[in-house]
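User: What would this chain look like folded?
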Amino acid sequence: MINSPQQALKHYFGYDRFRVGQQEIIEGALNCQDQLVIMPTGGGKSLCFQLPALLKSGLTLVVSPLIALMEDQVTALVNSGIGATFLNSTLNGSDRYNREQEILAGKIKLLYVSPERIFSESFLPFLDQVQARIGISGFAIDEAHCVSEWGHDFRPEYRQLGQLRTKYPEIGMMALTATATEQVREDILIQLRLRSPQVHITSFNRPNLFYEVIPKPKDAYRQLLKKIKETSNGSTIIYCNAKKKVDEISAKLIQDGINALPYHAGLDTKTRTSHQSQFIRDDVQVMVATIAFGMGINKPDVRLVVHFDLPRNIEGYYQESGRAGRDGEPANCSLFFGAGDVGTIEYLISQKVDPETGKPLEQEQRRARQQLRQVIDYAEATECRRIVQLQYFGERFSGNCGRCDNCLNPRPIADWTVDAQKLLSAIARTKERFGLKYIIDVLRGSKEQKILERSHNQLSVYGIGNDKTADDWKNLGRSLIHQGLLEQSTDGYGILKLNAQSWEVMRSQRQVLIAIAAKTEPQPKLHTQVRRENAEILFEGLRSLRKKIADRCKLPPYMIFPDSTLLAMAQQQPITKVQMLKISGVGEVKLERYGDEFIDLITNYRKGIGSEN
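Assistant: Here's the prediction, encoded as structure tokens.
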């Protein structure tokens, strides 16, 4: 009899302990508490609503934005012995009826649907039947950032989901997402009408990911090819901004002997589905794609994510690069940065016009340009990449992560307190009404008409920064923002605002240190190779066995066991079911289904080692 979260965690999911934040969230769900959960990709969000569903009577309804995403999660749950299903447009009338009957009979604990289906003509009456017959135990709104117009993946249908709170006020609701700024979080709470919600925000930091920015030379493809060849253990995703570029890169990789496939909106649905399936099942190593690919992918063993073109905003980059290393093992996130990409994105922004009037959508353009500036700031940053990335989400990071190019190849640090005082003073004397470029122009004594018209050439700070280049001042301004010593508005204008720390700097109560030198050291090697010494041969054997079983069961290999579990097997080499059950990721259901074959392989391996000795 399973009656505690800890028992369910081991029995169904194979884990002995919860990850950070999970237990508190699960206990809140068991008490029907409304919750907003912000947890990074790979942090274990899904378990936060899946496990309570197993311990409560009735059905948990999960709202998911993509068919691929819901089908993937349902397949994984069923493979772990959990009653789960989905209702979507891929089902015919007979299949849908049979699944509805299973639900009403109490055989299903988790039902996945899209927001569009919830408000279809027949679904809400069916939900009333479920409530009357077996009860609804909870609502889980996955990818909840889709609720907000300020999110990077806004879905208008998500904004209707607050009606579920009105219709079923007594049922607990959990909203979950990997990325949400403070503005997006507030919008989610309002739109979903969450009542006295507990808000759980775990760190956005993914310590297993290595971040680097690579200058984009003419032979960038050769560098890309080298990185892929260095990533032998695991899969690779390459993001490009254009369909044509996706086709070009995938064709070149195939010519160079890399097993790669393209994915973009220009391919028909059947082809996209086939390519995605081959990638998930490890039949191909590399997927070259536009950002249309990835949201519905739950593949944990992606070891390399490359942005061959500049992403359009930090939030999207965090989400896309975060598809690497979902299993917690080391993975690399490489961004190629070239000036040509900036011009391309600026042109696309200028094309944002009202389809009816043809007039520019000024607010959207302004917001998009600020997002582009933030991406450029990230790419050109001289400090720890995580300082910049996490600051975007309102999280402070001290730096020196040891897992980014800037920390492995640190620039010299210099005291720029006096110059920071000049810049902050210029902001104060111009009444905190301008962006960084304007402030730099004032400091460097620009004679532009807008400065003269405002009489800012009469200020005491006018021209006092002419001893430094505009890039020097830009680097200082960015660093002040990243360190939290200066604020910048998020309305698209990028207006600079002073805060308490700014005044401490101006009063000489706080020192300002920034990294200043250009990077001259060679790029670090990829940190993706599995190095387990004597266990490496066994690990590869376990991977081959997993692929064989996965093909036989028509499942993605990671649904048999993730790489982290195979690594633990290779290191601990269990040869009995009792020993195997102690491996993290091995639950009782999977032990019964697959345990014997893995135990046999490990046993034979140990016999072989013994005979060699």
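The longest strand covers residues 209-215. If you want, I can go into more detail on any region.
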